[in-house]
Amino acid sequence: MIEINNVSKTYGKKRSLANVTLTVESGEVIGLLGPNGAGKSTLLSILSTITAPSSGNVTIGGLSLKKNQKAIREVIGYVPQDIALWEELSVKENMKMWSKMTSRSLSNEQLQSLCSAVQLEGRWKEKVKNLSGGMKRKLNIAVSLIHEPSVLLMDEPTVGIDLQSKLEIIRYIKQLAAKGKTIIYITHDLNEILDVCHRFAVLKEGKLEFVGTMDQAKEKTGEEAEQNVVYKLLHD
What we know:
Radius of gyration: 18 Å
Mean pLDDT: 92
Strand content: 25-35%
Strand order of the largest sheet: 6-7-8-3-9-10
Number of strands: 10
């Protein structure tokens, strides 16, 4: 589904990504781990066509990023780390505004169904500014699904929220994966990697240091405890 081939990104003299190569299969959830500044968000920005790579190429669903940016936007849903909502508008108004920006015009019933899927029942007419942090995160996800993308790019979708909301979001992400969504998932939470992701990748200083399952990571590091495995991958 996603082929990242020798992708590099520089900003002036600063290198953000260096020859990253990664394949993500259809229906797979792959986690991205790494310290702040490792290049995780830069990679998602490239995949979502927000920024162009300095070199290398990406294909998504057989479409080349260099030639098919508009078509790629049709198959990608992007959940940013920041809340991408209008605070003074209601849940309904936010959903309708975002729907108008896509190629699909959904009915109120369809938009409400999306909100119900992320457990925002009863909040349809409530202003976003009155929602909890967890509810805003859920609405962020609902917005990303309006145009029915086959690929989801998620940049720390559970950061800074209560445990119940986090568990509900994680459960929903697993449901999306079970339905065939391909998901790249940035997180700093080891438990999310273990619970949600089929494989994970470690980025350090823009370089891809590891890609595989936790069992493969244990074999590589010689460690058994998951925390020790990740610590060694991040620090060696």
